[in-house]
Amino acid sequence: MDASLPYGLTARPLAADDVDAVVAMINACEMHDSGRPMWERADLISDSSTDGFDRERDWIGVFDDDRPVAWAMLVHRRSGWADVHPAERGRGIGVWLRAWLESRAREIGSDFVGQGVDDRLTGVAAMFRCAGYTPKHTSWVLRMAHPSPPPEPDFPEGVTVRAYRPGDEDETLRMFEDAFSGFEGRLPSTLATWRAMTIEREGFALEDLVLAVHDDEIVGGAFLIDAGDAIWIDKFAVRADHRHRGIARGLLHVTFRRSFERGYDHTSLSTDSRTGALSLYERVGMRIVESFTSWAIDLS
Length: 300
Fold this sequence. Notes:
The protein has helices at residues 19-34, 41-47, 93-107, 122-130, 169-180, 191-197, 247-261, 278-283, and strands at 9-12, 59-64, 67-75, 79-84, 112-118, 134-145, 159-163, 209-214, 217-226, 231-238, 266-272, 287-298. It has two domains: 9-110, Aminopeptidase (3-Layer(aba) Sandwich); 143-291, 3-Layer(aba) Sandwich (Aminopeptidase). A twelve-stranded mixed sheet has the order 1-2-3-4-5-12-6-11-10-9-8-7, with helices on both faces. The mean pLDDT is 93. It is globular and about 65 Å long. The two termini are 17 Å apart. By secondary structure, the chain is α+β, with helices and mostly antiparallel strands. α3 links the parallel β4 and β5. The chain is built from eight helices and twelve strands.
């Protein structure tokens, strides 16, 4: 790595005791950039529990004494997360983190590494472009406002909805993998990673994984996170051979009603240009509130 950290700052792998302080720092960045916190402790714990993640090498914190001022994390071998506290920006820390992510990705043999950047952060996008990164796809955060009760869920004949049951793991993972296997640059998920991101996530309850079932087969699902001010639809899919039947719409309405019944006035999710699902969400009334561009660089 050619870049150096500013004088007085140190870097080291994160430890379990750092998680709460790092999440607070990340949310300070989110409040500055978007006006709302986006991360929970469970997000960092689940990401760092995925299959193959090395807690000694795949995440790093930048500290001023014992106070975290920046961090980065490499997940699924190719995807980077990084933030620099607003008060510390403009000092070259982001360049150092970018170089660290590239170095770590090369070390484990990844052919590319990428990072999603809020489209409002034009200076960050310019940094990536100057470093040889190119835009790969667009992601959007969408919101469904429901100041009044959302419609009752309606499913096609023969399709029922139930909560996850222990023992559903393999079939549910196969359903999600079937839905997402065609995405460019996406590595298949292992069962251990899927479990870490869903049913082993801190605070998980059985009803957080809603499954659509037809003839005793799982054909769709939504993994839900209660974010404290809304339900966040973290994973959402319908098996390819059961699409265009209204199952996705029904699952969305299940989610909207749960959010409303918990006293929340909206539900949120994220999708990207690789899925082709944006029009579905807009047809049910969801609206884009944020956009991100995935910037990546070839390491081969």
